Amino acid sequence: MTQLSAANSYNVEASLNYWLTEQMAAYTLPDWLPQMPPLVFNAGDVTALIPCYAVFHLSGFTDERWQGGHVGGGLLGARDTSILEVSCYVSRAMQNWRPLQRLMRDYVKGITVAHRVVVIRDFLSDPLVGEATAYKVDISDVTEVETAPDPENDQIERARILIEYRFTFRSSSS
Amino acid sequence: MSEVLVKAEGTFTLVQASASANPGWTTGAAAPSGVVGFVNSFSYTSARNLVTMSDRGVPKHHKNAGANPVDLTVNLYFTGSGVNPLTASGATVPMVHGELKYRQAQFGGNTAQYMQFYGLALQQVQLTENDDGVMIALTFRGLGMNGPTGSGYLS
């Protein structure tokens, strides 16, 4: 019978959301920015919420790298590589849209530079804050990719940042 | 419950050595120290000479014929600031101690794995120009080492 350990994609994605939320709230903002634009998770249309950060998790792949898949503690595992997508949305109708978007982009990048490791929290056993586990996510390359103009509203400007991350997906089998 | 360590968790720090005792982490009061930055790669070799004794042609047991000095190489992007070991009184060659720390955030607090290198003398400096950054390779020879261990001398 297979059982998931705390190091699974559900917990990892929730832990990264928790991490982003916590770190964004901790920034000291310049005087011209009264509050941090909100993080919006898994929303299809964010037009009404602009300016905001739209967060999506893009599934990656797992591959075997170890003899027998043994990862210690009696568990079996594989290395998982996935992508966290954070898009910084602003509107050209806003007075300071260009500096605002640049700053939003820097806030995202700043977090990834300052924290190269994120502790995995177990949201399956504690749905609110997640209990910290002894597992981690390694933050890897951060890439900003070009996006096509919004077909329905050319006032919308999007800065799309892809954050690659890796962790050891673990489960047990008896 | 183990996790693979990655370079991003590492920090290499040097501190001025005050004597050549081995094994030992001997420094003066408030000895100058500093983190080595822009490290691109780090490697070391700690080895001992083993002699395998045979009995009637069949390997029977090993003898430890002595430890080799620890050879350590650090490749880093050159910033122009000095990287020379500081003069250590009482030592024939200026030496530093080095500590490699891998932080383990998943265990909370300041938990880390440390490796300490005693009595490092700078053996070779090699500079290579690249378009994206001048590289400098430092080769040290140490008297001994300790680790990995859960306790460190430096932060």
Q: How is this structure best described in words?
A:
The complex is a heterodimer of chains A (174) and B (155). In chain A, strands 1, 2, 3, 4, 5, 6 and 7 form a 7-stranded mixed β-sheet that branches. Chain A has helices at residues 9-26, 97-114; strands spanning 2-4, 39-41, 52-63, 76-91, 117-122, 131-145, 156-173. The mean pLDDT of chain A is 94. Chain A is of the alpha+beta class. In chain A, a hairpin with an 8-residue loop joins β5 (117-122) and β6. Chain A is elongated. Helix content of chain A is 21%, strand content 42%. Chain A contains 2 helices and 7 strands; from the N terminus they run βαβββαβββ. Chain B is an all-beta fold and 155 residues long. Helix content of chain B is 0%, strand content 54%. In chain B, strands 1, 2, 3, 6, 7, 8, 9 and 10 form an 8-stranded antiparallel β-sheet that branches. In chain B, a hairpin with an 8-residue loop joins β7 (96-103) and β8. Chain B is globular. The two termini of chain B are 25 Å apart. The mean pLDDT of chain B is 89. Chain A binds chain B through residues 71-73, 116-120, 132-136, 138-139, 168, and chain B through 1-4, 6, 8-9, 103, 105-108.
